[in-house]
Amino acid sequence: MARVTVQDAVDKIGNRFDLVLVSAKRARQLAIMGKEPMVEWDNDKPTVVALREIEKDLVNRGNVDRLGHVVEEEQQEQEYTE
């Protein structure tokens, strides 16, 4: 398992408090909502995957909510078609 450097993720987000909020929200999307990860999963926990996505600038404060809404819209469309 590759090590995740939290300081790199803090530098991308701006401060550690926002990092906690963004990474928790993204980890929830991965674990509960079934959203596909944007990095290789490598048998890691959703929190580690979320931090990797943040480190690579794939997830940030501006797009984490939008990523979740896309999943919700897809689920609603599936419910309507069934």
What does this structure look like?
The chain has four helices and no strands. It is mostly helical. It has one domain: RNA polymerase subunit, RPB6/omega (Eukaryotic RPB6 RNA polymerase subunit, Alpha-Beta Complex). Keywords: DNA-directed RNA polymerase, Nucleotidyltransferase, Transcription, Transferase. One of its GO terms (biological process) is DNA-templated transcription.
Oligomer classification: single chain
Biggest β-sheet: count, sense, barrel? none
- Rg computed from alpha carbons, rounded to a whole number of angstroms: 13 Å
Structural class: mainly alpha
How does CATH name the architecture? Alpha-Beta Complex
| CA distance, first residue to last residue | 40 Å
Helix share of residues?
55-70%
- CATH fold title: Eukaryotic RPB6 RNA polymerase subunit
The H-and-E topology, N to C, reads as HHHH
CATH homologous superfamily placement: RNA polymerase subunit, RPB6/omega
Which outline best applies?
A: globular
What is the number of helical segments per DSSP (H or I, 4+ residues)? 4
State the total count of DSSP E strands: 0
Q: Beta-strand percentage?
A: under 5%
Number of domains: 1
Report the CATH C-level class.
Answer: Alpha Beta
Give the uncertain stretches in residue-range form: none
Q: What is the mean pLDDT?
A: 86
